[in-house]
Design a protein that fits this description.
The chain contains 11 helices and 7 strands. By secondary structure, it is α/β, with parallel strands linked by helices. It has 3 domains: about 35 residues; about 45 residues; about 170 residues, Nucleotidyltransferase, domain 5. The strands form 2 sheets. A 5-stranded mixed sheet has the order 3-2-1-4-7, sandwiched between helices. α2 packs across α3 and α5 crosses α6. The longest helix is centred in the C-terminal third of the chain and has 16 residues. The C terminus is likely disordered.
Length: about 290
């Protein structure tokens, strides 16, 4: 098979009077090929469609479609892990391309990010989840995810609880700070009732007395988000989506204890050792460097 430029050259040399053998010798191609294209005249060479190259993800496409139809929010990283458990030996990039072909990624708006120095801030919030434990088939339970995210390293500490009451929130604070092994200068809260009671006539925030006692004990400053400014607490709200999509969706749990055991394992092996997309730092390494300062 010759290229289009070579085809034109064959015809031109033939028009100039060169014999087939001379054309073949000059262009370095077979005489039969030269003769064939001369007989075609001005008809350009035709090329058939390229044969489909087998991709490493091809055997798993039906699995990917099935999972994304059932759970559209599943991340490519999560699906890559699941495929590896089923024998997939390829890389993450190929899975990401396959997922993008099946489910195009939405265009995200540009925004300016607010970063804090090491040890400066953590963000705390609660999110509602519905789960059907395998120990209670047919019964839908509401559980609450408490999450504390360190502003600089993006380290996540999280726990599912049955109630979103003050005692549960305070116990989670204590467990998180003990697990992290340090205390940020301030902790940022959404205006959840367990943290913020309201405002005084001058517009100053009134915090829950028990939370203030805990803050004095651990020497951190509580700080409430400004009303109607959800982006100020984005570091803790984005992980809720990350946890829901990469850990929670499509998984099964026997009971609350099993849910938290699996969550802890996922945080230790997936979420906190990852390279963070925004900071481009490994979360655990950034936390370790901050802790040594």
């Amino acid at each position: 098979m010759v290229k289009f430029g070579e085809f034109i050259m064959i015809l031109e040399l033939h028009r100039q009077g060169l014999k087939v053998a001379a054309i073949a010798r000059q262009l370095g191609i077979d005489r039969k090929t030269v003769r064939k294209y001369i007989s075609r005249g001005l008809e350009p060479p035709t090329y058939g469609p390229r044969p489909h190259r087998q991709k490493s993800t091809d055997p798993f496409l039906s699995y990917l479609r099935e999972r994304l139809v059932a759970f559209p929010g599943l991340t490519a990283v999560r699906l890559w892990r699941e495929m590896r458990e089923r024998g997939y030996g390829g890389g993450y990039t190929a899975v990401k391309r396959a997922v993008r072909d099946i489910r195009p990624e939405p265009i995200t708006a540009f925004e300016v990010r607010f970063e804090t120095p090491p040890g400066e801030q953590a963000q705390v919030d609660l999110a509602r989840f519905e789960v059907e434990f395998t120990d209670e088939p047919g019964v839908t339970r509401i559980v609450w995810l408490f999450s504390m995210v360190l502003g600089y390293s993006r380290l996540i500490w999280a726990r599912f609880v049955i109630h979103q009451d003050l005692q549960s929130v305070l116990r989670c604070h204590i467990a998180a700070l003990e697990a992290i092994g340090g205390v940020p200068r301030e902790i940022l809260y959404d205006r959840m009732k367990t943290a913020v009671i309201g405002e005084d006539p001058d517009g100053l925030v009134i915090y829950n007395r028990a939370l203030l006692d805990l803050a004095r004990h651990y020497s951190f400053q509580p700080r409430a988000c400004r009303p109607y400014r959800p982006k100020t607490k984005g570091k803790v709200e984005r992980p809720f989506r990350y946890i829901r999509e990469d850990f929670f969706l499509g998984a099964s749990f026997r009971n609350l204890d099993d849910l938290n055991i699996q969550l802890r394992r996922w945080l230790d092996t997936v979420a906190n050792p990852r390279l963070h997309a925004t900071t481009q730092r490994v979360v655990n390494e950034a936390f370790a460097k901050k802790s040594r300062r």
